[in-house]
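Practice problem: predict the structure.
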Amino acid sequence: MSGTITVEQALKKGLWHVKVPLVLIFGGFLAACTIVAYFTGIELYYGTLTGFVLGGLAAFLLSSYLTARWRIWAFTNVDDVHELRQAAITEQLMPADGSWFGKNELISVTIKAQLLELGSRFSEPYAFNDDYTLPDEVVLYKYPYTLIIIGGITILFGCVTFMISAAAGSALILTGAGILMLNQKFVKATPGKNPFITIGNKGIKIEQGELQGWKDVRNERIVWERTGKNRYYYLIFDHHGGSERINLTNAGIKTSYLNHLLYVYRHRNMQHKTH
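Answer:
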């Protein structure tokens, strides 16, 4: 079986068909409960808390169905299912093997059977399709996106507040937009910083580290871990001198792009060895 959709295209569809609906459902419950509390005289705190609980529960119950349907479409239409699986786990569009969520997905027997059938694609003859748009080496710089998160949250609360008070909501939305513009100026003003990660045909080099050749690099992957309410992303790999664990959470590097680089350069190196 071969597909006609790229991994990047599949991930983008996963964003719009899985993540965006879940965010809208959560935000919808939050806004609705807050508005109901305001107009009925209930303390706004209780309305917001109820919105968080109901929105979170609704998003959790729907997430299994949405992710399963996306996986059926993606693994049917994407050519390189090996890269897709690696990227989908990182982007939380499918559960990792052995995870609690993977063992307790709320999906029908029919959908589960379809997913098991598609799993047979991993036993098909494997052929690596190189990405010729990538040069011999790519240099990535650290661009913190903390301000993007703060600006986005400010705009979100501004939209909710606007339904109650147009003046206060507008002020929050404009403040959030100003924060986002400030972040863009910060990024453009710091283009000459030391490379954060360099990855290419020869191997991987991290900030203030030595180049690790692909023959010495093992188990390279991007993982996410939850600590309390916070979620952190890491680039992890082992090498002859030990192991590396690089925090990507506030680096401003798109994890799907980094996953693609790891996959392509690793397999490009393996391919050259066979010739």
